[in-house]
């Protein structure tokens, strides 16, 4: 799917009080920092050096240019020396993209033997960055502050992580969700204010009668369907489990036809996320299962039963993780059933069908089984178990007066035994800090049963994204206690 060639600008602040020699050092130092950061191989996007900013006019022009440049995903600012912060007011007030305040210093150690007042005046980011930080805080501008030496790999990784958050901010307004089914009747938590979602997140959320997408499915040629079915048979294990081989393949081919038809519809109409509903399938023969799983693996967002908020979040989180080295996957997910045995507590995660195979570990099989709900023929689906390790589960809920993003850190594990009769893909996790506190906190926070789940994003990234969007974030992690969480939400209700 379309990827923009994003870059980040590096703007160094100073002033003309120090003379040309000092300013030439400032420029050389910031150039070297940018070069080294780009050469580190740890940043997912290039940093572009900009000439030192020393007055209102140059600062305002640089931010205006950054706004206008489609490839610029944000500006990284650093005050090498002192830069009187009133100079930044006009530029900052007009700036609309992600802002990182990189509070670093060119040298890492105080040069004890040679340090004099010239050195002090040239290398005073401890001084200048406080002046700059003050005005950003006073203006109430959302930004990220990262402090540390630029050559420190941990600091470089934090910049890399922030860059992905910035991409999430930039790309959010390019997410278009197609609803070929409304919300499931009477369900509350998957509902929400679509106008407010567009104001806050930039999402376009459009409805189509399901049979408009069915026309695209019906128009798929037999040859194309056969070719994709063959690809499925080459890619996945075929788990007949006593079903007739020919009848099984016919069921799988229905999903191939749906995948091709849906993909064409999404591409033609420029949608990056989709919702379906098992009870509203129009002319479709099966609930899209395997088809949706394959689309999700290619980067499309998905939400079941009309859940457009989760569909958009899955899409968003897939964009934020694009190109992550050794990525473990991002998926739509649903809390199903608990294991309450002491020491082995956790939540079994699955959905009727639609779990993204990017999170799988081990073989992926195709099964054809009846759905316990709805009135269509048995759908084909991909079945697998998921990777282990830390991950985050997120739920975006509409509280009527505001959106809240709930972020729970979880530890994914293997279940003790295989589940041979369960015909769906699964994950199993223990929420932090533990199952009972995690689940109680989730319930208090009003979190949904549907989640957007990822191994490849952090709480910090999602909290920063929520802050940039101007919405509340509630974190459930190892520091969570119920008393503090409930108080935090009371305070938040006033703040928002
Ligand atoms: Mn569901």
Summarize the structure.
This protein is α/β, with parallel strands linked by helices. The protein is built from 15 helices and 19 strands.
Topology:
Elements: E1 7-13, H1 20-39, E2 46-49, H2 56-68, E3 72-79, H3 89-94, E4 99-103, H4 117-122, H5 125-138, E5 144-147, H6 153-172, E6 176-179, H7 194-201, E7 204-207, H8 210-218, H9 222-235, E8 237-238, H10 245-268, E9 273-275, H11 290-297, E10 301-303, H12 308-320, E11 330-339, E12 346-350, E13 360-368, E14 380-386, E15 389-398, E16 403-412, E17 427-431, H13 435-445, E18 450-454, H14 459-469, E19 472-476, H15 482-495
Parallel strand pairs: 1-2, 1-3, 3-4, 4-5, 6-7, 6-9, 8-13, 9-10, 16-19
Antiparallel strand pairs: 11-12, 11-18, 12-17, 13-14, 15-16, 15-18, 16-17
Helix pairs in contact: 6-12, 6-14, 8-10, 9-10, 10-11, 13-15
The chain binds manganese (II) ion (MN).
Please give a structural write-up.
- The structure is a single chain.
- The protein is an alpha/beta fold and 496 residues long.
- The chain folds into two domains: 7-172, Rossmann fold (3-Layer(aba) Sandwich), CATH 3.40.50.10940; 176-320 and 330-495, L-fucose Isomerase, Chain A, domain 3 (Alpha-Beta Barrel).
- Helices cover 39% and strands 22% of the residues.
- The chain is built from 15 helices and 19 strands.
- The chain has helices at residues 20-39, 56-68, 89-94, 117-122, 125-138, 153-172, 194-201, 210-218, 222-235, 245-268, 290-297, 308-320, 435-445, 459-469, 482-495; strands at 7-13, 46-49, 72-79, 99-103, 144-147, 176-179, 204-207, 237-238, 273-275, 301-303, 330-339, 346-350, 360-368, 380-386, 389-398, 403-412, 427-431, 450-454, 472-476.
- The strands form four sheets. It has a six-stranded antiparallel beta barrel with strand order 11-12-17-16-15-18.
- β11 (330-339) and β12 (346-350) form a beta hairpin.
- α6 (153-172) packs antiparallel against α12 (308-320), α8 (210-218) crosses α10 (245-268) and α13 (435-445) runs parallel beside α15 (482-495).
- The longest helix has 24 residues, at 245-268.
- The model has no long low-confidence stretch (mean pLDDT 96).
- The site of manganese (II) ion has 5 residues, from loops.
């Amino acid at each position: 799917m379309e990827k923009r060639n994003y870059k980040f600008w590096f703007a160094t602040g100073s002033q003309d009080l120090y003379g040309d020699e000092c300013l030439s050092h400032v420029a050389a130092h910031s150039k070297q920092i940018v070069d080294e950061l780009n050469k580190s191989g740890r940043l997912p996007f290039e940093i572009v050096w900009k000439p030192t900013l020393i007055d209102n006019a140059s600062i305002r022009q640089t931010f205006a240019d950054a706004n206008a440049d489609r490839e610029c995903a944000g500006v990284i600012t650093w005050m090498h020396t002192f830069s009187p912060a009133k100079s930044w007011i006009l530029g900052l007030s007009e700036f609309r993209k992600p802002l990182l305040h990189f509070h670093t210093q060119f040298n890492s150690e105080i040069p004890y033997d040679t340090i004099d007042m010239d050195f002090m005046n040239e290398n005073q980011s401890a001084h200048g960055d406080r002046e700059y930080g003050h005005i950003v805080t006073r203006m109430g501008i959302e930004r990220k502050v990262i402090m540390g030496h630029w050559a420190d790999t941990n600091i470089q990784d934090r910049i890399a992580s922030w860059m992905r958050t910035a991409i999430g901010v930039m790309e959010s307004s390019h997410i278009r969700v197609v609803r070929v089914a409304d919300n499931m009747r009477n369900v509350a938590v998957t509902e929400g204010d679509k106008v407010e979602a567009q104001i806050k997140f930039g999402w376009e959320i459009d409805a189509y009668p399901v049979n408009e997408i069915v026309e695209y499915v019906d128009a798929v040629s037999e040859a194309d369907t056969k070719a994709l079915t063959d690809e499925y048979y080459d890619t996945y294990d075929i788990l007949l489990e006593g079903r007739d081989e020919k009848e099984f393949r016919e069921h799988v081919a229905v999903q191939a036809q749906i995948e091709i038809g849906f993909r064409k519809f999404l591409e033609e109409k420029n949608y990056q996320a989709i919702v379906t509903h098992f009870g509203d399938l129009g002319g479709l023969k099966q609930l899209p299962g395997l088809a949706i799983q394959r689309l999700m693996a290619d980067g499309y967002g998905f939400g079941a039963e009309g859940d457009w908020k989760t569909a958009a979040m899955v899409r968003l989180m897939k964009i934020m993780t694009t190109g992550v080295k050794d990525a473990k996957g991002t998926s739509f997910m649903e809390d199903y059933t608990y294991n309450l045995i002491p020491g082995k507590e956790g939540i079994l995660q699955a959905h009727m069908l639609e779990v993204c195979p990017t999170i799988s570990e081990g073989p992926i099989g195709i099964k054809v089984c009846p759905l316990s709900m709805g009135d269509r023929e048995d759908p084909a689906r991909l079945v697998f178990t998921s990777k282990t390790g830390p991950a985050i589960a997120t739920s975006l809920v509409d509280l009527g007066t505001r959106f809240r993003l709930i972020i729970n850190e979880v530890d994914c594990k293997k279940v003790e035994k295989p589940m041979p009769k369960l015909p769906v893909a699964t994950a199993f996790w223990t929420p932090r800090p533990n199952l009972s506190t995690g689940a109680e906190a989730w319930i208090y926070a009003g979190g949904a049963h549907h989640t957007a789940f990822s191994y490849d994003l952090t709480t910090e990234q999602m909290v920063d994204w929520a802050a940039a969007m101007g919405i509340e974030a509630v974190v459930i992690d190892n520091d969570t206690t119920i008393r503090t969480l409930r108080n935090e939400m009371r305070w938040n209700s006033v703040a928002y």
